[in-house]
Amino acid sequence: MEKEYFVDDYEKLVAALKSVDPIDVAMSKAVGGAYEIFGHIECQVLEQYGLANGMSVFDFGCGSGRLSTAISQKWEIEYLGVDVVDDLLRFAASKAPSHYRFLLNHGLSIPVPDAFADICCAFSVFTHLRHEDSYLYLTDLVRAAKPGGRIIFSFLEFADPNHWTIFTDTVAARRQSVLPHLNVFIERNAISRWAAHLGCPQVAFVDSHDPRWGGHALGQSVAVLTKPAA
């Protein structure tokens, strides 16, 4: 399958960062900066929704490994991370335990078996995809989750005043034809409708500015789907 429309731009961004910054700095900038801080916040999100020793975690859009690095410092789990950029995956693997696995994937389906993970997560992924692509991936994440498992992802929403600047900055960049990537907003009623159609009517939301993660906010809103137990 051909690469999705966003992959080439992301690969160019990573290459440009590597050409001017030390590798640790470049790999942090490639996923938005504050590598350790956001890695620990994402880990705390998973902890609140059931992460425990012995579980399996599937990290869709794992980037350069800020979540996998944070998890490995505290929990003994099975982990699989997937991303679209080789350089990010290699860096993530270099910081992870040897049994953690990382896969390159450019397809619109996820290369994992049914009922694979206790927790499937996607941080800062659906924020850059078209709705139809997000729904396709979410369909596969539900399939990949074990019965009773969680599907956790972050998103941007117009209802959140903290996200309005992201939209206006995106509009300004589009006007100048310098838009570096898509910024896509998903409203909660759309997520609830998607979840219902996917057989996961139980959905919890966390506001982007909620400081419950050790006194810090994630900056994006969080949706948590629960796959019904068999």
Task: Please tell me about this protein's structure.
By secondary structure, the protein is of the alpha/beta class. Helices cover 38% and strands 18% of the residues. The protein is built from 8 helices and 7 strands. The chain has a 7-stranded mixed sheet, with helices on both faces. Helix 1 packs antiparallel against helix 2 and helix 3 crosses helix 4. The longest helix is centred in the first third of the chain and has 14 residues. It is globular, with a radius of gyration of 17 Å. The mean pLDDT is 88.
Instruction: Please mark out the parts with pLDDT under 50 across 5 or more consecutive residues, or reply none.
Output: none
What's the Cα radius of gyration?
A: 17 Å
Strand order of the largest sheet: 3-2-1-4-5-7-6
Distance between the termini: 33 Å
Shape: globular
Helix content: 25-40%
- Derived from helix and strand composition plus strand pairing, the structural class reads alpha/beta
Mean pLDDT: 88
Would you report the number of β strands?
A: 7
Element-by-element helix/strand order: HHHEHEHEEHEHHEE
Number of helices: 8
Strand content: 15-25%
